């Protein structure tokens, strides 16, 4: 009988249970995605320049476990808010507390473990899809990645079994120990909301000062090193807490005292709701803001490394394409590219010397890159006379020659003397194109043919004369950072947005009576909907906005690693905003369905 009543109750709230189940599936899927990387030491070591990357991911596991634990608490709170009155009604009808406890335990544990199993399958699918999308869109080169990780699966199952076992025990004990009247009226118990004005103002000042100190320390990382990081971490965490514990409440109080704002529509009700709710949300909003900053920062820095690759390639390489023995190259392949500069230097050689026509260099001087500062180069030009007299200039030419030519001396002759030599001529051809990235695939085919025509060239050792190979080298070097940044950033953003959503929805039951009351006294439905959108919008907007500000200041720390850490900043922020808007819209829709069922 109890089972039948329980199933009937679940059927009556099927949409809420689908939401709960899908949220738990997403949580376990994201947890698996992270653990699939964290437990794959071969992937971490082969795709990162940081020697302690494995330790960093173990610390990340601890962090994600804490976030997931908090997420499960809010999801569990959402479950209990749906079922407490049902369980109380069962008790009033004569059901024994022990039987109710068993039903609660089984329901919580089965829903949790079922969601975990489905989540692992979803996580495997998402890992594969995300990996393929990132590799394809960003042209990443990663090795030892596996969407299916046995260690990741086992760790995920074990972690969630323990979490849901604890949640089921807590739920069962809560139902047994809590009086029936408390269960019936659990959603009607208000939280205290008294704050002294002086204390509030002092906390506002402290919060602003702490954030200012933290942001300043981020700009001093190069000077103060670890000390700056420690001070920034402590002050920003505390400052973030005070933003929600005092600054936001202080701002809401100021708005409530402005009649033009407070008395318009249901603004006074919305502001009062927010003031009441924020005090209970301080910790979760602070956590969400900080971890959103970390997740968004990971995506931003990952994209920064991606943007750095073509810049470093241009600094390192002079020509877009170098062809040795160019007379052997397929003319049809060369016709596929559109060069802005195409110069051919004719060579002749004997056992000891490589001969050149000096006039060709006088007409088209050899180009080379010269470093003048960190990440800054200028192009220098060497004519025939410079190559003849300057050893350094001659060495620049050697960098473009075949390995077997590097030990020979250079001799630059007049056109007539060069023509008089009996040796067979060969061609050294150097090319610039208008858009390297656009023609990269075509240039790569020509580089492969050049390697095929000249088997003595070592692809790894001689690669820095070919721009394509330089790009591939840097891309392989930074791909691990890019992949981890995007992969983990998107996963963490999804988890934290879900966490905030469930926190808001877990308190929805207590708001039903308030919205019903407004409906009964004649408040228009459009005004009620607008109030809901504004209230939830503030709860989403403030931690997201603060997280963005943290990122903008935090990028100062990467000035030593990235030439322009703020380049193409719109892309990670767009990803963040799109994901955020999806969760905001979903939360508004579900919350509206809960608090305004009768009005619908």
Task: Give a structural overview.
It is a single chain. This protein has 600 residues and is an alpha+beta fold. Among the domains are: 189 residues, no CATH class; 145 residues, no CATH class. A five-stranded mixed β-sheet has the order 1-7-2-3-6. A two-stranded antiparallel sheet has the order 4-5. Helix 12 runs antiparallel to helix 19. The model has no long low-confidence stretch (mean pLDDT 80). It is found in: Cell membrane. InterPro entries: ABC-4_Integral_Memb_Prot, ABC3_permease_C, ABC_permease_BceB-typ.
Topology (elements, then pairings):
Layout (H helix, E strand, L loop, with lengths): L1 H11 L1 H25 L2 H6 L6 H40 L4 H42 L11 H28 L2 H5 L12 H22 L2 H4 L1 H31 L2 H4 L4 H50 L4 E4 L6 H4 L4 E11 L3 E5 H6 L2 E8 L2 E7 L1 H6 L1 H8 L10 E5 L1 H6 L5 E8 L2 H18 L13 H40 L5 H9 L4 H30 L15 H26 L5
């Amino acid at each position: 009988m109890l089972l039948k009543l329980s199933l009937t109750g679940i059927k009556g709230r099927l949409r809420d249970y689908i939401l709960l189940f899908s949220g738990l599936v997403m949580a376990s899927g994201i947890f698996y995605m992270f653990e699939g990387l964290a437990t794959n030491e071969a992937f971490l070591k082969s795709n990162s320049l940081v020697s302690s990357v494995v330790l960093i991911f173990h610390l990340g596991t601890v962090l994600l476990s804490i976030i997931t634990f908090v997420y499960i608490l809010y999801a569990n709170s959402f479950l209990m808010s749906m079922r407490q009155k049902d369980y109380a009604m069962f008790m009033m009808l004569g059901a024994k507390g022990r039987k109710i406890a068993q039903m609660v335990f089984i329901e919580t544990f089965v829903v949790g473990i079922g969601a975990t199993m489905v989540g692992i399958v979803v996580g495997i699918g998402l890992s594969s899809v995300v990996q393929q999308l990132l590799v394809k869109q960003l042209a990443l080169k990663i090795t030892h990645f596996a969407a299916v990780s046995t260690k990741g699966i086992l760790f995920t199952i074990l972690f969630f079994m323990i979490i849901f076992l604890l949640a089921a025990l807590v739920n069962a004990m809560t139902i047994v120990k809590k009086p029936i009247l408390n269960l019936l009226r659990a959603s009607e118990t208000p939280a205290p909301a008294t704050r002294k004005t002086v204390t509030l103002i002092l906390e506002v000042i402290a919060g602003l000062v702490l954030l200012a100190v933290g942001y300043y320390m981020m700009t001093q990382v190069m000077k103060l090193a670890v000390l700056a990081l420690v001070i920034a971490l402590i002050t920003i965490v505390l400052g973030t807490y005070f933003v929600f514990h005092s600054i936001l409440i202080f701002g809401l109080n100021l708005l409530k005292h402005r009649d033009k704002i407070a008395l318009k529509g249901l603004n006074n009700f919305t502001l009062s709701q927010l003031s009441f709710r924020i005090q209970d949300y301080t910790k979760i909003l602070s956590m969400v803001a900080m971890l959103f900053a970390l997740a968004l920062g990971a995506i931003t820095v990952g994209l920064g490394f991606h943007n750095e690759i073509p810049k470093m390639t241009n600094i390192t390489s002079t020509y877009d394409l170098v062809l040795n023995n160019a007379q052997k190259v397929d003319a049809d392949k060369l016709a596929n590219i559109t060069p802005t500069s195409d110069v051919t230097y004719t060579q002749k050689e004997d056992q000891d010397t490589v001969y050149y026509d000096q006039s060709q260099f006088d007409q088209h001087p050899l180009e080379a890159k010269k470093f003048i500062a960190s990440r800054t180069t200028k192009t220098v030009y060497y004519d025939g006379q410079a190559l003849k007299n300057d050893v350094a200039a001659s060495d620049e030419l050697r960098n473009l020659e075949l390995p077997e030519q590097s030990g020979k001396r250079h001799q630059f002759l007049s056109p007539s003397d060069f023509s008089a030599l009996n040796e067979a001529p060969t061609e050294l051809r150097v090319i610039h194109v208008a858009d390297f990235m656009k023609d990269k695939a075509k240039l790569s085919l020509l580089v492969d043919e050049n390697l095929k025509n000249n088997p003595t060239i070592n692809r790894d050792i001689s690669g820095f004369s070919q721009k394509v190979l330089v790009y591939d080298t840097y891309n392989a070097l930074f791909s691990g950072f890019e992949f981890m940044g995007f992969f983990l950033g998107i996963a963490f953003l999804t988890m934290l947005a879900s966490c905030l959503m469930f926190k808001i929805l877990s308190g929805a039951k207590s708001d039903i009576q308030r919205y019903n009351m407004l409906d009964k006294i004649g408040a228009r439905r459009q005004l009620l909907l607008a109030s809901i959108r504004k209230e939830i919008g503030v709860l989403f907007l403030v931690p997201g906005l603060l997280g963005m500000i943290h990122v903008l200041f935090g990028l100062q720390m990467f000035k030593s690693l990235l030439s322009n850490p703020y380049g193409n900043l719109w892309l990670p922020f767009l990803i963040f905003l799109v994901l955020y808007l999806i969760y905001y819209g979903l939360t508004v829709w579900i919350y509206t369905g809960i608090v305004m069922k009768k009005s619908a």
